[in-house]
């Protein structure tokens, strides 16, 4: 009696993740993102505790849900000289309210000012960014 081969009893590969629908940036309005870059580390979570009293170094950007961390890096570099250094590293964190209404800060990726990296192509949509969330950026 012959045993079935390993190949025939193996499970099929899992389905690949569905592709995100492409956004036509000519037809879809961009959304406002409140970005808080800071040299030397992230802001403290307490800095976001009171609406209207967020950190003073806010930068407002208009972009789309399919914007990548690389695109956001380039936008931050336009307004933050420290982010233009050849050795600069930018770490992105989302700040949003949890189910109890308390703010949470969750690091979602990092980029390098001049080199490509594994997080460069992560999009805001993939990171579950929602309108009203803040983006805290640590520049080191």
Your description of this structure?
Helices cover 11% and strands 28% of the residues. The chain has helices at residues 6-9, 69-79, and strands at residues 31-39, 59-63, 89-97, 103-112, 134-139. The longest helix is centred in the middle third of the chain and has 11 residues, at 69-79. The termini are far apart. It is mainly beta. The protein has one domain: ASAP complex, SAP18 subunit (Ubiquitin-like (UB roll)), CATH 3.10.20. The radius of gyration is 20 Å and the shape is globular. The protein has two helices and five strands.
Decide which structural class fits the backbone.
mainly beta
Main β-sheet, spatial strand arrangement: 2-1-5-3-4
| CATH architecture title | Roll
Number of helices: 2
Which radius of gyration do the C-alpha atoms yield?
A: 20 Å
Helix content: 10-25%
- Looking at CATH, the homologous superfamily is ASAP complex, SAP18 subunit
Characterize the overall form: globular
Low-confidence stretches: 1-6
Integer average pLDDT: 90
Q: How many domains, in number, for the residues?
A: 1
GO molecular function: transcription corepressor activity
Region (Disordered): 1-23
Protein name: Sin3 complex component
Family: Belongs to the SAP18 family.
Topology of helices and strands:
Blueprint: H1 6-9, E1 31-39, E2 59-63, H2 69-79, E3 89-97, E4 103-112, E5 134-139
Parallel strand pairs: 1-5
Antiparallel strand pairs: 1-2, 3-4, 3-5
GO molecular function, one term: transcription corepressor activity
Region (Disordered): 1-23
Biased composition (Low complexity): 1-10
């Amino acid at each position: 009696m012959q045993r079935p081969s390993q190949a025939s009893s193996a499970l099929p590969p899992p389905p690949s993740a569905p592709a995100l629908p492409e956004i036509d940036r000519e037809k879809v309005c961009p959304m406002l993102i409140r970005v808080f870059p800071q040299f030397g580390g992230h802001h403290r979570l307490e800095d976001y505790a009171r609406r209207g009293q967020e950190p003073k170094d806010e930068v407002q950007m208009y972009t789309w849900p399919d914007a990548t961390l690389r695109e956001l890096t380039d936008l931050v570099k336009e307004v933050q000289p420290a982010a233009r250094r050849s050795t600069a590293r930018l770490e992105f964190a989302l700040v949003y309210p949890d189910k109890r209404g308390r703010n949470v800060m969750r690091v979602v990726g990092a980029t390098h000012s001049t080199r490509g990296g594994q997080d460069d192509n992560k999009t805001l949509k993939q990171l579950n960014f929602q309108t009203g969330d803040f983006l805290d950026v640590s520049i080191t």
